[in-house]
Target: DNA replication and repair protein RecF
Amino acid sequence: MFISGLSLTDFRSHKKTQLQADAGLVILTGENGVGKTNILEAISLLSPGRGFRGSQLSDLIRREGEGGFAISAKLHPLAVSGVVDPVTIGIGLTPKASSRQVRVNGVATSANSLSEWLAILWLTPAMDRLFLEGASVRRRFLDRLTLTIFPSHARHYTRYEAAMRQRNKLLAEEKGYDPLWLDGLEQMMAEQAANIIFFRQQLVQQLSEQINQQEDSPFAKADLFLDDGIEITEPLGGASADQQPDIMPYLQNIWQKSRSRDAAIGRTLQGPHRADLKVAHHAKSMPADQTSTGEQKALLLGLILAQVNLITEKNGQPPVLLLDEVAAHLDPSRREILFEILRSKGGQVWMSGTESSLFDKAGSSACRFHLDKEQILTDF
Ligand SMILES: Nc1ncnc2c1ncn2[C@@H]1O[C@H](COP(=O)(O)OP(=O)(O)O)[C@@H](O)[C@H]1O
Ligand SMILES: [Mg+2]
Model:
């Protein structure tokens, strides 16, 4: 699917912004602060999670507005998808409501089900620090990649976290905890964790294969290592998480043995919520965080492009890709190669930049929008 129409109402700086786009490259230009990133962020919110800025819902509401916001997108099938009917998906927050509403063709549904309609990937300036930040940032990155291939990953993670929160609460009870109740919670955690670990391992393995196939990429090649967050000596085999007879009792045993320690520190110390994705620069055999800023950017771009290939192979169609301010950081020849690669993948790619000249070589079929200070969009 690709986004053929987008409508934002009272979303951040946008009072009412509507646009129509085609598959292929979609380019947003305009001065700093006119609201380009806000448009891309709105698209990123059409997937499970809190969008690429990770913001609270209240931050998304236009400050001068009525107290709610809405994002709606019309999705059109790509020629290769085999699907025929367009779909309308949307999220919104009505004034005074505390949680967002998600709708598909007007029918309320869960945020996690959005990934069944649209696989969305992004690269933003904030991700420049991905390799320098703590593990939680890379874990979120890993989970985003994982759920574009395994949509149920998001549901397992939500359930795992809910059970873990209950375990932490129970361990903190002053009059002592009920071991039977804890057994049940740890069993629930283990069921979800088996899936989470399995899907992440699959993703890292498949993405690594994809990276190794990219012989002539102009962007750097990455070596990926998954730290599961819990000592798992053998990678999970089998075709699904259910085919792991040993992993669940193993996980339960770890949590059972660590109850008094976890109670003392007030949280669960081991588990997939502590995982990390370690990345190395292949050609330099060097951890990514020790390479130069430019090399880290090239690594990330290479990773994202490999993931686009993986999604295309697994889902039968490419994802929607959001590249915020990416073009400005590439030299002209790499920029041209990037446009060429993106066009050849056949999906929809949203790109932003301050100068329209950055996109001179983006091709005549690109949709181009200029946003001015009054948030008026013109195509050119
Ligand atoms: N909730 C909000 N209400 C009104 N304006 C907002 C809100 N959140 C952000 N903004 C404004 O949006 C603008 C930034 O838009 P952004 O999309 O990041 O710009 P750019 O075009 O540089 O990418 C800023 O001027 C900021 O003040
Ligand atoms: Mg911006």
